[in-house]
Structures are given as C-alpha cells and as structure tokens.
Amino acid sequence: MLDVFTRIQRPVCKNKRVKIVNNIIETSNLKKYFPVRKGLFSKVASYVKAVDGLNISIRKTETYGLIGESGCGKSTAGRTILHLLKPTEGKVLYENKDLSELSHRKLNDLRAEIQMVFQDPFASLNPRMKISEIVGEPLLVHKRVRRIRQSMPKVYELLETCGLTSHYADRYPHELSGGQRQRVVIARALALDPKFIVCDEPVSALDVSIQAQILKLLKNLREKLGLTYLFITHDLSVAKHISDRIGIMYLGKIVESAESTALFRKPLHPYTEALLSAVPNADPDRKKKRIILAGDPPSPMNPPEGCHFHTRCSKVLPVCSTLAPVLRDVGNGRFVACHLHHN
Ligand code: SF4
User: Would the CB of 338 count as within 6 Å of ligand 1?
Assistant: First the structure.
C-alpha cells in the first residue's frame, strides 16, 4: 500500500537531467501518520494521514509558501520537516544531510540553524520571563554564553534589528502589543544566526495593518541576512505578498506548485482556481467568478479513492474517482496533480 502511494506521489519531471543543486531543504515522500486507537486495549484502528508523501525542494534564500485550508496538514508538514515530529516515512535533507540519520546531539546542534516562528506570539512567550531573557535564552541553551547577562549586547542588537528599542528588554510579554510580541518571537528565532526558518501562520493572529509591517520585516530580514523561509499560511493574499514559489496542499499532498506570479496569473488545478477565486481583487477589469467549494474537506483518516479532491471538484472526470493523479511537471517550473493536465 505504501509503495503505491510512493509511486503516485513522486513528481514526474519532463527533463530528468535537470537537477537543482542549490536547495537548502528537500523532502522525499515525507509522511506523517497519527494512529487512531480504539477499544479496551487501545488497538490502532486507523491512521490520520496528515502528511501523505510530500516532495518539496526549497532553494536557498527563497520564500516557499505552503498553502491550504485548515486541517490540510501544512503545520504538521512544517514540524515534520524540522523533525519536531518524527516522520512516519520518507526523508528530509537539510543541505544534503539526511536529518533522520543524524545523532540526537548533531540534530540538536543543527537546530541553531533551523528555527520556527509560530502563529500565536502570546502562547509562544513565557509570561514570567522578561523580553531580554526570552530573546537571550537560545544563546544560553546552546552554550553561546554562560550567563544571560552576557547575552545582553546581542539581545539589544536583535531587538533593534526587529524594530524594537532596547527599552523593551526589561518588559514582560503582557506589556507588549500583538505586533511587538511577534517581533520578539522573530528576534528570538534569529538569536542563533539561523539559515532556515519555518514561519507557521506568523501573521494570522494580527490586525491587517500590523500584518503588513511584520511581512515587511520578514522580507527585509531575508534580504539582509540571506534567510530562507518556509511560509505556512491559509491566506492567499499574504502568500502572494511574500512567496517566491508556492505549493498548494490538499489532504496531506501537494496538488500544485509553481512560481508565485505564474500561479496567481493562471492557476491550473481546480482546487487552486477555487481558492484564488475567493481572494478579493482590487482591479475591476479582472473580476472573476467565485467558485464555491462544495462541503468541507473529507477526513484525512479516510480520504476519497482516486483524486482526493474529486468529491468537491467542479471539473471532475469519470477517471477521477478511481485513479489518483500524479504530481507532474507541466513545463515552466510548474507541477500539477490533475488528470485535466495530463496527456
Ligand atoms: Fe478534479 Fe479530476 Fe483534476 Fe481531481 S483529477 S482536480 S477531480 S479534474
């Protein structure tokens, strides 16, 4: 069964001789299944297939947007890529190093280079710690300093880099606004000079005006520090603003990936089309008809046979309910998993 999924989900490249060597992250058939236990002896009755054969490559210094509705597995994918969750199957290569083959110590050392920024800045900050302790803590944990006091010059520098003055160092999280707290979270993520950051819905808990400021900060930091982001969001407007390339996820699988501008200009997969049709368009000449998706996404515990999207697709073909489409290269760096685009 797993081999079948493996074959189905590997992207098929038109030009097999093309090999991108400048990737910081490559996942290969990455899966994360959660067992569902039932009965007196808690036997495994089934699995929630949160991530089901993910193949993505993220190039150095780019922002890769991972998009999908809530529950599609995008946050689990982010955590599994960082090995905060152990993959059920598949590989994650970070700068060509297989993370699952690293010892606990080496993986821990590597965590300095790969960081995560979460959605809710308040929940991810310890309310009893001062901002200086929060931002300086990673330096202490990774033994870059022996006492938090020694981290202060770096803490001030990080706060300033993230648009906060040194006066914030002595404050507590509850004394800060949502936007300021997210700046603190970003400052802490930068403490160990990371190369790769997974941003999991980093602006969805903020007001729209503050969202724009935080997105601008993340963009500036990427350029200044040469960072690479995996940017996870359900918000297509946010993804369009910040992403170089985008992967659209549905029930644990990528159904379309492309350069951001190409994807927004002409979505190929019916699911991407439906998502994009819901994004408000300021240009009156380019008003498009809203495609309403029927019903909720099916359960990842029992996804539909064939194309997982066939129960909601407005362009469904007879073949779609029996044969799962492969994620194929359709030219110009675009990949799509849909029978409509496979000759
Ligand atoms: Fe729709 Fe069929 Fe394409 Fe799936 S494979 S998106 S059901 S047309």
Answer: yes
CA of 304 to the centre of ligand 1 (A): 12
Q: Is 319 a domain residue?
A: yes
Instruction: Name the residue with tokens 């022996």.
Output: 146
Q: Six-digit token pair at 246?
A: 């985008």
Query: Is the Cβ atom of 313 under 6 angstroms away from ligand 1?
Result: yes
pLDDT tier at 157, thresholds 50, 70, 90:
very high
Atom of ligand 1 at shortest distance to CA of 319? 2
CA–centroid distance, 315 to ligand 1, in Å, is: 6
Residue 184 within any structural domain of the chain: no
Query: Which ligand 1 atom sits nearest the alpha carbon of residue 307?
Result: 4
Look up residue 57 and give its two tokens.
Answer: 């490559």
3-state DSSP assignment of residue 341: helix
- Residue 232 phi/psi, 5-degree rounding, is -95, 125
130 touches ligand 1 (CB under 6 Å): no
**How many domains is the chain built from?**
1
User: Do the domain assignments include residue 79?
Assistant: yes
Q: Give the tens place of pLDDT for each residue, 252-277.
A: 999 999 999 999 999 999 999 999 98
Write the DSSP assignment of 90-156 as a string of letters: EEEEETTEEGGGS-HHHHHHHTTTEEEE-S-TTTTS-TTS-HHHHHHHHHHHTTS-SSGGGGHHHHH
For residue 341 and ligand 1, the question of a CB distance below 6 A is answered with: no
Name residue 257's beta-bridge partners. 247, 335
Bridge partners of 59, per DSSP, are 23
What are the counts of helices (DSSP H) followed by strands (DSSP E) for the chain?
10, 13
CATH number at residue 34: 3.40.50.300
Asked whether the predicted pLDDT for residue 26 surpasses 90, the reply is yes
